[in-house]
């Protein structure tokens, strides 16, 4: 059964909350990546990790960037492990969603005392 974008983001959020409540803050981003991957597997959620994406500018390939997670082929997930999210991180996540042509992305920060979770949208899609 195909999940809706809301169902996917809800399940991802649940997995991230489990990781954050178990580990708390203070670890490197890669530790949270590995733990989130384990939680996604437990929930039988399809994902790919560290997926290299091509960045195009006006139809010309100008470089690549690795997305932390692509979930169910529909949602890009960018993780951080910093004290506080800033506008630059939100802008980065938004740029990835647009550059990779995904309808929605999640920016998740494990580094603060409380888990920070932001949805970013690609205006090209009616989400």
The CATH architecture designation is Alpha-Beta Complex
Classify the fold: give the CATH topology: Lambda Exonuclease, Chain A
β-strand amount:
25-35%
Number of structurally distinct domains: 1
Poorly predicted spans: none
* Sheet with the most strands, sense and barrel status: 5 strands, mixed
Q: Can you write the helix and strand succession as a string?
A: HHEEEHEE
Q: Structural class of the helices, strands and pairings?
A: alpha+beta
Distance between the termini: 20 Å
Number of strands: 5
The count of helical stretches stands at 3
Using the coordinates above, name the CATH class: Alpha Beta
The coarse overall form would be globular
Characterise the protein shown here:
- The protein has one domain (5-121): Lambda Exonuclease, Chain A, CATH 3.90.320.10.
- The chain has helices spanning 5-23, 29-42, 87-99; strands spanning 47-57, 60-71, 75-80, 104-109, 116-121.
- The chain is globular.
- By secondary structure, the protein is an alpha+beta fold.
- The chain has a 5-stranded mixed β-sheet.
- The mean pLDDT is 93.
Summarize the structure.
This protein is of the alpha+beta class. It has helices at 5-23, 29-42, 87-99; strands at residues 47-57, 60-71, 75-80, 104-109, 116-121.
């Amino acid at each position: 059964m195909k999940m809706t974008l809301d169902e996917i983001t809800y399940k991802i959020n649940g997995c991230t909350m489990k990781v954050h409540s178990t580990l708390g803050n203070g670890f490197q981003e890669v530790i949270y990546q590995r733990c989130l991957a384990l939680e996604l597997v437990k929930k039988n959620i399809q994902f790919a990790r560290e997926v290299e994406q091509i960045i195009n500018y006006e139809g010309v390939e100008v470089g690549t960037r690795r997305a932390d997670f692509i979930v169910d082929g529909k949602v890009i997930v960018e993780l951080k492990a910093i004290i506080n999210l800033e506008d630059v991180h939100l802008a980065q996540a938004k740029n990835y969603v647009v550059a990779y042509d995904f309808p929605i992305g999640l920016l998740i920060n494990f580094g603060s005392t409380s888990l920070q979770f932001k949805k970013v949208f690609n205006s090209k899609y009616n989400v």
